[in-house]
Structure formats: C-alpha cells, structure tokens
Design a protein that fits this description.
Order of helices and strands: EEHHEHEHHEEH
CATH architecture: 3-Layer(aba) Sandwich
Number of domains: 1
Strand content: 15-25%
Helix content: 25-40%
Radius of gyration: 15 Å
Number of helices: 6
Distance between the termini: 25 Å
CATH superfamily: Uracil-DNA glycosylase-like domain
C-alpha cells in the first residue's frame, strides 16, 4: 500500500503553513507489519530533507542518530521500516514560523487520523514534540476519549503510562530538524523514549 494514495488534503484550509511543502509519505508499506508509528511535527521546508526522500535526507540523519542512541542498529529509514517502524508528521505542510497555530494542527489531525487508521497492529506511538502531542489529543478528544496526553511540560509528563486508541503513547521531544543535537539532555530523553517503545515489539 502506498500511503499517499490513501490519505491527503483536499482543500488546504490552513493559513499559517507553506502549502508548497505539502508532503504525505509516498512510501510502500504493508500496514499489518507496522508496530510503532513515530509522529514528528511538520513537513520540512525542503522536501529533500523528508524521511523518505532519496539520498541521506536530514530527517533520516537525525532519526537514525536518535535510534542508534537508543540501541537500535539501523542505517536508514528503510531499515527501520523493515522493523515495523513508520514515520510521519502531524502537520503535512511546512511551517512559516517557529510555531503552528492550533487551528492548523486540528485541521491536519483529520488527515493524521485517517493515516493512523491504516495500521491495525500498532503497539506504540512515539509523539515527537508538542505539535504531535496536540494532534493526537485532537483525535482522541474528537472520538470521545478525552486527552490521550495530559497538559504539562514534556519533561514532567514523559515516562507516564498513556494510551491512544488503546495502545501505548510516549510523549517525547522533536528528533528532527536543524535544532536536533543541540541539547544533549533532550537527546538522552528521546533515546530513552524510543527504547521504551522498542521494548513493546521485541
């Protein structure tokens, strides 16, 4: 199944994102094999930096580093896909500034929900950053289940026992983008969260 042929945006209602950076994972996967879904913030300003871009894109570099620090041996996103780990973003277009408006995250959460529904055997969701956490909470609230992740600073709530659609959800920090690697403490916490999710599929 090619994900980009299953879900997408039809009317592009959001005003504070770069629609020209719109990206849905254009990758072939067997949905039944996916056990962990990693959700980061938004599509990169340059599509050549995206998870599934050719060569050695920035998102791949950052992510492989994070997984290696968690003790996972992998050299590419394709290696991780073969392990049953799928990567996507909560917002499918690029950012125009530092933050993304709540209305845009909420609008894009409808696309994210349809995307996540494609994977019937997920055991864990890794929510990389506040935008991913908000997107998941919008889906959870819309389905009458309340917030999947409570309000609060990530460093205070990470490590808690949270669920989304009956599966474990791990609030963490953003593992991709130019700022990754600056704060060693966050890198350590990201690695810990990845390792905790990986234990569920071993």
């Amino acid at each position: 199944m090619k994900i980009s042929e299953q879900v997408g945006c039809l009317d592009f209602p959001c005003e504070d994102v770069k629609h020209e950076c719109y990206l849905i994972p254009d990758v072939e996967v067997n949905p039944e094999n996916i056990a962990i879904v990693v959700i980061s913030e938004a599509a990169p300003p340059d599509p050549r930096d995206y998870y599934y871009a050719a060569g050695n894109p920035l998102f791949q570099q950052n992510t492989i580093q994070a997984f290696r620090e968690a003790g996972v041996e992998a050299s590419s996103i394709q290696d991780l896909l073969r392990m049953g780990i799928y990567f996507t973003t909560a917002v499918k277009c690029g950012k125009t500034g530092y933050s993304i408006k709540a209305a845009s995250i909420k609008a894009c959460s409808h696309i994210l929900e349809k995307e996540l529904d494609l994977f019937p055997n997920v055991k864990a969701y890794l929510l990389m950053g506040d935008v991913a956490i908000k997107g998941i909470n919008y889906i959870s609230i819309r389905n009458g289940e309340g917030r999947a992740i409570p309000a609060g600073s990530t460093y205070k709530i990470r490590g808690g026992d949270f669920t989304f659609k009956g599966k474990r959800a791990f609030p963490s920090y953003l593992q991709v983008g130019p700022s990754f690697g600056i704060e060693k403490s966050k890198q350590r916490m990201i690695a810990e969260d990845i390792a905790s999710a990986m234990k569920l599929i071993k």
